[in-house]
């Protein structure tokens, strides 16, 4: 019975991710002022993070669609815990006046795989749908921002969003 329940959970996750992906492709026209600290706190609270730690390095307010942005942070947090282990540390901050980063101290993403991980259907996790980072990319681009993947400070993965308008560091 367990394999059947696992298959059902996986199908449900694929359907949910597919629907999210279909909804996220449009350009975002309505934005509001978003506090990075508040958004990150809400997203972290909804993800099963085990013994992982979140560190918010900088506070910033910026214009965005907070509902769509929740999908971005929740997906990145889930990936960090899934690939970095239950005790991973995730840091969120500003990498310059026009950008936000999310990084972890997990194993990182090899340079030759960085473009590949953003493509639909790519997964290295058992039971993964392969849509999480595709959803992240589409939402970031729908905001008119650019997404890049780099090495984290401690060797893990780092995702940077380059905004089209300057946020306000607080």
From TrEMBL:
Keywords: Kinase, Transferase, Two-component regulatory system. PROSITE patterns: HIS_KIN. One of its GO terms (molecular function) is protein histidine kinase activity. GO terms for biological process: phosphorelay signal transduction system. Its EC number is 2.7.13.3. The keyword Protein biosynthesis does not apply. Gene3D superfamilies: Histidine kinase-like ATPase, C-terminal domain (3.30.565.10). It catalyses: ATP + protein L-histidine = ADP + protein N-phospho-L-histidine. Residues 1-167 form the Histidine kinase domain. InterPro entries: HATPase_C_sf, HATPase_dom, His_kinase_dom, Sensor_HK_Regulatory, Sig_transdc_His_kin-like_C. Pfam families: HATPase_c. SMART domains: HATPase_c. Transmembrane segments: none annotated. This is histidine kinase. It comes from Halorubrum rutilum.
């Amino acid at each position: 019975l367990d394999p059947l329940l696992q298959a059902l959970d996986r199908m449900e996750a694929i359907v949910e991710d597919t629907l999210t992906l279909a909804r996220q492709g449009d350009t975002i026209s309505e934005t509001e002022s978003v506090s990075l600290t508040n958004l990150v706190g809400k997203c972290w609270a909804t993800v099963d993070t085990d013994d992982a730690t979140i560190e918010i390095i900088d506070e910033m307010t910026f214009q965005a669609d907070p509902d769509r942005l929740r999908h971005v942070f929740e997906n990145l947090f889930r990936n960090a815990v899934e690939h970095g282990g239950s005790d991973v540390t995730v840091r969120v901050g500003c990498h310059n006046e026009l950008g936000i980063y999310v990084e972890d101290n997990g194993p990182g993403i090899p340079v030759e795989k960085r473009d590949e991980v953003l493509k639909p259907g790519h997964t290295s996790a058992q039971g993964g749908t392969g849509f999480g980072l595709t959803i992240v990319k589409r939402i970031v681009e729908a905001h008119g921002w650019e997404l890049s993947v780099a090495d984290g400070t401690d060797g893990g993965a780092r995702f940077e969003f380059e905004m089209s308008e300057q946020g306000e560091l607080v």
